[in-house]
Amino acid sequence: MKRSAELTPLSHEHHQALFVAMGLKRAEEPEAGAAFLDYHEETGARHFEIEEAVLLPGWLAADPDAEAADAHRVLAEHLEIRAAAIRLRDGEPAVAELRELGELLERHVRFEERELFPRIEQRLDGVSLRRLGAAIAAAESGDP
To answer: What is the CA radius of gyration of the chain?
Structure first.
């Protein structure tokens, strides 16, 4: 499915996350977590902030029938991934932990791309979707 222009910036970052997730799922050495930490610090943490501060509230505000449970799932998975990043920074993880993180990251991105984003695109009218897209673009560029 073609992604709307309004959600494309977040989708591009999801492609990067899937690449990192694949590396984690194939991890053979604890050092495999370094690529995840680089991604998380350079892109992932800010991506989560934009989803939490812009995407989810904007969607819930514009869609009176939005499923808050979907937003809660995204938030809970963000917390799990952030906690894993802290554990990776603070110590040497077991290979099994890296692989589990890879599974979680992939599952998270697939949910957003296959379920959440299409739902947002289908349920929001053009004006609301453009408004949400403008807010995401502003957040991506660092504008207040």
So the answer is: 16
User: Structure pTM?
Assistant: 0.93
pLDDT per residue of the chain (144 residues) written in tens, 0 to 9 = 588 999 999 999 999 999 999 999 999 988 889 999 999 999 999 999 999 999 999 999 999 999 999 999 999 999 999 999 999 999 888 999 999 999 999 999 999 999 999 999 999 999 999 999 999 999 999 875
Domain boundaries defined on the chain: 8-141
Question: DSSP secondary structure string, 78-115?
Answer: HHHHHHHHHHHHHS---HHHHHHHHHHHHHHHHHIIII
